[in-house]
Specification:
Helix content: 25-40%
Order of helices and strands: HHEHEHEEHEHHEHHHEHEE
Radius of gyration: 18 Å
Number of strands: 9
Number of domains: 2
CATH architecture of the largest domain: 3-Layer(aba) Sandwich
CATH class of the largest domain: Alpha Beta
CATH topology of the largest domain: Rossmann fold
Distance between the termini: 34 Å
Number of helices: 11
Shape: globular
Largest sheet: 7 strands, mixed
Strand content: 15-25%
Strand order of the largest sheet: 3-2-1-4-5-9-8
Low-confidence stretches: none
Length: 277
Amino acid sequence: MDRDNTRVWQRHAAQWNAVGAPLKPSPEDLQILGQEIERAEAALGETPWCLLLGVTPELAQHQWPKASRLVAVDQSSEMIESVWAENPGIWSRPLRGRWEQLPLPSRKFAVIAGDGALNVLATVEQTRLVVGELARLLSPQGRLVLRCFVRPDAPESTAAVCAEAMDGRIKGFHAFKWRLAMSLIDPSHTTVVVEDIWKAFERHIPNREDLARRSAWDRCEIDTIDAYRGNHARYTFPTLTELHSTLNDVLHVESVRWGTYELAERCPTIALSRREP
């Protein structure tokens, strides 16, 4: 992991409990995951091996089938040490590693799940490498279930998003933070430098106390934006069409579903299966 990404995940781990929806999966998202697990079980006729991309607690502590064996892979030792907790109902273990090249057997996993996993990949090329590796690991009748963050086809202006925040027209700070990040995407590419999100916030909203008063957001939530300061890693926010194009190379999209929470329309859960030759 490069130095910039290390700093990102050190700060992210330290403030995990202050992060809220839609950055974390909602009960609706977990329900969709549960339904896809049931589909994979029914197809295989056996209890599955499962793989998590990252150590997202809401996924790791999900009610997996009793005899499941769950492996969670994260390249950040800080996230593993600060966020990971074994699931009390099943065998579960973390593994430090890069998703582009995993020391795991092919066609082993009936369910592979991730929350925002593709959004932390810095380039389309890196995304294709990871998707190809996941296709290798997925069992023939298994399911890859990914909640992804996608930007809208019609871009928003940064000034307009910040004006809505100051007018109290955005319910949650973390929904605002994602809209702010997506507003910085140039149509010619799909990524944003993490520090640029912080810089845009500072430029358009210099008075945090005024923002807290007008939005009714907790100041501690607002201050989570400081985790982005000085970080030169990139987040990726494709449109749904762009994401489909990347995934369809080696996987088949089975379904795309959304919750009903704020900004859920930009947080689809996509279920995929292998494309067999």
